[in-house]
Amino acid sequence: MKGVETEPSPSQLIDARIAKLTDWRADTFARVRALIKQAGPDIVEEVKWRKPSNGMLGVPVWEHAGIICTGETYKDKVKLTFAKGAALEDPCGLFNSSLDGNIRRAIDLYEGDKIDEQALKALICAAAALNDEQAAARPARPRKKPARR
Length: 149
Known about the structure:
Blueprint: H1 10-20, H2 24-39, E1 44-48, E2 59-63, E3 67-73, E4 77-82, E5 105-110, H3 117-137
């Protein structure tokens, strides 16, 4: 319909976030995003937590049976935070941030850092597999019946 604005898709919002970056972070974020998509074609891109403080662009989130990771950009880094990173094997030592908690782990990428593409894709696949495992182990919740009036 003419004159009706449609809500941008998550992919469009992430494209807009990347386009706003004017330095090395744009290339790094775009590369990481491409690697995530390569790691699992059934991984879904979402954008969550849209608010005025982040220009209504929100936080890019990649999901498969739950959140795999989020992607954020800061002045000096691109950060990938894995929702269940503490439960993942990291034989290549990619996790270099948020190591103190018992749930999340993160990868901070700085200007000039080389991304170990195979290791990152393996970590993404492991996170998706963990989500699948945990989803299968969860008992199905009964649907609530609507309240009668």
